[in-house]
Amino acid sequence: MAEIQCEEPNPYQVALKQLEIVAEKMKLEPDIHEVLKLPKRVLEVAIPVRMDNGRIKVFRGFRVQHHDALGPYKGGIRYHPKVCLDEVRALAMWMSMKCAVVGLPYGGGKGGIICNPKEMSVGEIERLTRRFTSEIMEIIGPYRDVPAPDVYTSGREMAWIFDTYSKAKGYAVPEVVTGKPIEVGGSLGRKEATSRGTVIAVREAAKRTKLDLTKATCAIQGYGNVGYHAALLQRELGSKIVSVSDSRGGIYNSDGLDPKAVKQFKSKNRTVVGYPGSEKITNAELLELDIDVLIPAALEGQILADNAPRIKAKIISEGANGPTTPEADDILYEKGTLLVPDILANAGGVTVSYFEWLQNLTRESWTEETVNNKLEERMVTAFKTVYDVSQREKVHMRTAAYMIAVERIGNAIKLRGLFP
Ligand code: NAD
């Protein structure tokens, strides 16, 4: 099968460039650099699914395992018509870096299926999910590779993965996947965890830049799991959410939007566009609004050399993975924007996934307060570590975060040595 080309900027090329910048800065041993460039395993599977019309449709799916020096591979599964292998490769590498930045005993992995769930019935999505699980069964497992939700997947799909895997083993294995519904072993606080981390990052950044968040305006690109909960939490800090968007476009109201009401409107109308009292804007316009805080929470490749000079936000906290290119990073840094990179800003999700995995392994369940307190502690510590390195080394936060991650992974690779 021919490889499907990703749209530009190619996410894997972006990830390789980020790694190259850091390798140069920290004078990384060329051997370690070589090892980190390529994922350890790439699995492509064909997924035949009986559609509701009785015909079989064959979907293409991927699971990429980047590196496991620090522990089992960990990373979400994305359902999207534009999934491409280089995107999954990049997302897997970012997962390795992310887990290392927050000090989790995990490596990085990611999965994706080329499909459009918006045009599929629940039954078709379930059969797709179960067959995909069975096709990747050999390479996942609680101590091997632990999937989680990503774009257009949620607790519902994770419950099906858990069930399919458990049926094959003959006993319940909830720890094979995280992001499950609470009723089947999910963790309290997991649904909001990514956004909670993203907003903690905004709060920590605001402390350093002396931005008063109670008077701040905020725009959020993408209004799914991450975007919606980020809106709620950012509003709890007193900020005004003036703009949000989804795949069909954005909305703006200078007096502020009510996140819950917008969510209700989206549930009914399948988009935020048309929300009463708001002005319609494009996703590109949202990024360039005159606001204090910008939270990208959609897809990669949004902030580029082209639009970075026009971005006015003082703080950017990347809820999404890979929204900014290396060229744009430099432009924003020069302008004095404090950008908290994805591998730190959205690490709350995998952190609470780790808590869920621990709870499943020990058959315990923690209170939401315990989960949130532990998340807070890890995020604040990781933020401080990254910020301090960025100040000391005079580099932006992404390079600083990568330096910490690459050092941790590199040390583990060296200590474990090369087999045979
Ligand atoms: P989701 O499926 O819940 O929501 C995605 C949102 O993005 C939807 O509102 C969708 O309409 C919107 N969208 C899709 N294409 C768009 C486009 N071209 N322009 C603008 N908006 C668009 O997904 P999610 O879980 O909220 O993930 C969002 C981002 O956060 C992704 O980059 C994902 O990798 C990242 N992330 C998610 C988690 C998690 O725990 N779910 C963890 C870390 C990072």
Detailed description of the structure:
The protein has 420 residues and is α/β, with parallel strands linked by helices. Among the domains are: 38-176, 3-Layer(aba) Sandwich (Rossmann fold), CATH 3.40.50; 193-345, 3-Layer(aba) Sandwich (Rossmann fold). 46% of the residues lie in helices and 17% in strands. The protein contains 14 helices and twelve strands. It has helices at 11-25, 30-37, 85-101, 122-136, 155-169, 190-209, 225-236, 259-269, 283-287, 326-335, 342-345, 347-362, 368-393, 397-416, and strands spanning 41-50, 56-67, 73-80, 108-114, 145-149, 217-221, 240-246, 249-252, 279-281, 293-296, 315-317, 338-340. The strands form two sheets. Strands 9-8-7-6-10-11-12 form a seven-stranded mixed β-sheet, sandwiched between helices. A five-stranded mixed β-sheet has the order 1-2-4-3-5. Strand 7 and strand 8 form a beta hairpin. Helix 12 crosses helix 13. The protein is globular, with a radius of gyration of 20 Å. The two termini are 33 Å apart. The model has no long low-confidence stretch (mean pLDDT 97). It binds nicotinamide-adenine-dinucleotide (NAD).
Gross morphology is: globular
CATH fold node name of the domain at 193-345: Rossmann fold
CATH architecture of the domain at 193-345: 3-Layer(aba) Sandwich
The overall strand count is 12
| Fourth-level CATH superfamily of the domain at 193-345 | NAD(P)-binding Rossmann-like Domain
**β-sheet strand percentage:** 15-25%
Instruction: Assign the CATH class of the domain at 193-345.
Output: Alpha Beta
